[in-house]
Write a structure and sequence with these properties.
single chain, alpha+beta, 434 Repressor (Amino-terminal Domain), 2 domains, 12% strand, globular
Length: 337
């Protein structure tokens, strides 16, 4: 095997090692997936035996990887995996399971980080609040995906299957264990508030009280994020648990972000998630693209205002803007419903 090919193969297999659970044997994983002996798997891991095209295809399918990113790929060509949704609320469960499974892979890795340039509130935050979580899932399926099962229906939490709500809670719990840097603008909350206003103006809430209750949970979510920013720690409740390490940094960017962009570090590898058509996502592990994205995100954070930790004045100003926006929507509901 040529040295360059051997290096690419070893890098590819290293990536597989990083995405499998720590309790699983890499040798067993390769042997089971490829239908080969353990000795043959060892030879492929060491680069002594070349992976065939069929074997690469099987491994890419099993572990949702692309092989070309480890070779001498062209500078102007990047391969993405595309996670998309169809207009069927039952398929939304698969969408949530994909998010959950990706987070599981991140949480079991010793070195991990998520940097989120947030055009909209990161989806994870909504999932700690039952009514808000149900509202977001209902809105996405009815108003974005046009799910036939919700046609002609007003918002009703009972229409959201319990399995989806449970998955959403699990996603939030996993996200709490991932060290994160979030970059928000003054407009990051706008899309959620616009969704509430749209449903109010379209008669898609059953009662005024229901619309107010959703607003109340939006406010509760923002207050939790404010407390997390104050302590630089992800936690629920009024105070962080004793001894918990800092794992949350929040910035306020005065520059437009334009699109949700997430850079995830998993061990020695990185992945970039880009939103498309509201909440479909494109994912790549192309090293050059990830490095360029990281430079952009680090530069964006340097130009942003830190509002976590000791930045009390900046934090108060930023969150006051958000609370004022929530209050404005509540008043609109109360006066026009």
């Amino acid at each position: 095997m040529a040295e360059s090919s051997k290096t690419a193969q070893i890098s590819f297999i290293t990536r597989i090692r990083e995405v499998i659970p720590p309790s699983h044997s890499l040798v067993d994983e390769l042997a089971d997936t490829l239908g080969i002996s353990n000795d043959s798997a060892y030879r492929r891991i060491r680069g002594e035996t070349s992976l065939t095209i069929d074997e690469v295809s099987r491994l890419c399918t099993r572990y949702k990887l692309t092989f070309d990113v480890f070779g001498n790929s062209m500078a102007d060509r990047v391969t993405f995996n595309y996670h998309h949704l169809e207009n069927d609320i039952a398929r939304f469960e698969t969408y949530l399971k994909n998010i959950r499974d990706d987070l599981k892979k991140i949480t079991v890795t010793e070195k991990k980080e998520m940097i989120f340039a947030a055009e909209d509130v990161p989806v994870f935050h909504h999932f700690s609040y039952p009514l808000l979580s149900a509202f977001k899932i209902f809105y996405w399926n009815k108003s974005i995906l046009n799910a036939p099962s919700l046609e002609g229906k007003k918002f009703d939490p009972a229409l959201i299957p319990g399995d989806l709500c449970q998955l959403a809670k699990e996603i939030y719990t996993l996200y709490m264990d991932v060290p994160a840097v979030e970059i928000w603008t003054d407009d990051t909350l706008n899309s959620t508030l616009k969704q509430i206003e749209y449903y109010m103006e379209s008669g898609l809430f059953e009662t005024r009280e229901q619309a107010i209750a959703v607003c109340d949970e939006v406010e509760a979510m923002i207050r939790t994020i404010e407390r997390q920013a104050e302590h630089s720690i992800k936690f629920t409740g009024e105070n962080p648990p004793p001894g918990r390490e800092t794992n949350y940094t929040l910035y306020n960017s005065e520059l437009m972000i334009g699109n949700n962009c997430v850079l995830v570090t998993i061990g020695s590898s990185k992945a970039v998630y880009l939103s498309h058509n509201t909440f479909n996502s494109m994912v790549t592990i192309n090293p050059s693209f990830c490095e360029e994205t990281e430079r952009w995100l680090r530069n964006l954070s340097k130009k942003s205002i830190p509002i976590s930790g000791v930045s009390e004045k900046q934090r108060y100003r930023f969150f006051k803007i958000l609370y004022d926006k929530i209050d404005a929507v509540k008043k609109k509901v109360e006066t026009t419903f």
